[in-house]
Amino acid sequence: VQLVESGGGSVQAGGSLRLSCVDPGNTYRRKFMGWFRQAPGKEREGLAYINRDGGATYYVDSVKGRFFISQDNAKNTLYLQMNNLKPEDTAVYYCAAEGWGPVMSTMGRTTFGNWGQGTQVTV
Predict the structure, then answer these.
(1) What pLDDT is recorded for position 112?
(2) With 70 as the cut, is the pLDDT of residue 1 above it?
(3) How far is it, in rounded angstroms, from Cα 40 to Cα 1?
(4) Mean of the per-residue pLDDT values for the chain?
(5) CA distances from residue 120 to 24, 27, 66, 93, 101 in whole angstroms, order as listed
(6) Percentages helix, strand, coil for the chain, rounded to the nearest 5?
(7) DSSP letter, residue 57
(8) 54: region left, alpha or beta (phi > 0 left; psi from -120 to 50 alpha)
(9) CA separation for the pair 98, 106 (Å, rounded)
(10) Dihedral over Cα of 16, 51, 28, 100: its sign
(11) Distance separating alpha carbons of residues 71 and 51, to the nearest angstrom
(12) What one-character DSSP code corresponds to residue 5?
């Protein structure tokens, strides 16, 4: 099941954006879901994830205090609030769910293999 992201766009440095990711069939309601990004010429980078069944969160050090992951289970939606954006935050941002797939990435101790189509963020 493909995840559906939205909310990307262009913003000035110091601004904020909130990304959304819908899990249409609530397929991953008991899984970890997270956000990654990939800038041109760079590897995909994990940012944060959340345990949808409980709400525990994990952040990589580089975004702690600026990015915040949350969920609205009634809407089957994951969010990434991004504050104080910097030019180096420019990338395609992907929503991901724990599991196996053709493309796999690891963040913390969790492996993600189910992806959305990506949304461009330009700072």
Answers:
(1) 96
(2) no
(3) 26
(4) 95
(5) 21, 25, 18, 6, 22
(6) 5, 50, 40
(7) E
(8) left
(9) 9
(10) positive
(11) 10
(12) E
